[in-house]
Amino acid sequence: MPIAAxxxxxxxxxxxxxxxxxxxxxxxxxxYPIDMMTESADVIVxxxxxxxxxxxxxxxxxxVRVTVIEARDRIGGRIWTxxxxxxxxxxxxAEFIHGHPSAIFDLVAAGNLxxxxxxxxxxxxxDGELTRRDDFFAHTKSVLEKMDARGxxxxxxxxxEKNEADDDSAKLWGLEYVEGFxxxxxxxxxxxxxxxxxxxxxxxxxxxTYRLTQGYxxxxxxxxxxxxxxxxxxxxxxxxxxxxxAKHRVDVSAKKGNSDVEFTAPAVVITLPLGVLQAPQxxxxxxxxxxxxxxxSSALHLLYMGQxxxxxxxxxxxxxxxxxxxxxxxxxxxxxxxxxxxQDWFPTWWTRITSAxxxxxxxxSRRGERLSGRSESFIRDKALESLASIFHVPLLTLRNMxxxxxxxx
Length: 409
Prior knowledge:
By secondary structure, this protein is α/β, with parallel strands linked by helices. The chain is built from 13 helices and 22 strands. The longest helix is centred in the C-terminal third of the chain and has 16 residues, at 376-391.
């Protein structure tokens, strides 16, 4: 087990000490109280998201004692499943499994978890009307297939501008797909990176999409169960301030509530989000490295995390299943999977695999930036307005059927 030592400053006073000395020592104790928990391990892992938990498991499998430090009051990082109303699980982070990545499916097998393929008709809003387009992804990716990783790199926006082989409509859907799926501005995302991603998608058979029936929290439980408690300790609500490192020694200073805590080990694994690593020193949540990570700074400045806003709307009933869509029979939307549009706020929507009446809207890239910092009510209203425009349902009708709304970013 990791070793925990409690150290409290208690001034030792001897009879021969005069009253002045006593007063000085007592004053020192009051001004500079030492009340600190110090824990040692073989390796410290900062961050209890999927990467941190995986690192801890692999280290423990090698017999290494690990201390995991997490700022939040939960594990999982960007994996977070909630149940705001009975029978309706909502993912606030990861939701889909793209293809057959062994890292995930090994855990699925270990936890005996149920996975369902997510599919169904794809609908696209064209000239204000919904049209079934099951070839949407193939049509959109036909634009992306023209990208080439040979030669100098360039932005996706530049690629679209120079690409004369496709019409404006195809280019626009290509733009929507890249900025929506990757959450990155077309002016900033690299063509070479997109080509690498497409190659990785083909290798993982990412055209097939799956969901965990019990939600991603079931995967987290499997990951947690794989950590032997005699080798791995996890500290939640523990915010790292400073990482001091030298050869064969790392000291981590953190806050746990109002208390200062210290961790020490010969090595540390950092799995912090990019935004935390890029945060200027002195800003809330920033982590200071002493000495600075000079070899990493240039790479950090070249990386960028796109802005995304997700709005999950829970209704009293699946009203879309009974809609009459232009030129289609009533109930044509019953088995829909994705809906794509050019709406100003939330252009992309999808459904749940369960019977819960949940529609999830996705606003990424420049749309996400416009929504960032807005109130819950503003985001909910814009999501409802987008749905009303896509499905031609009165906004008041949607408001009356809405039970709950959750947004994440």
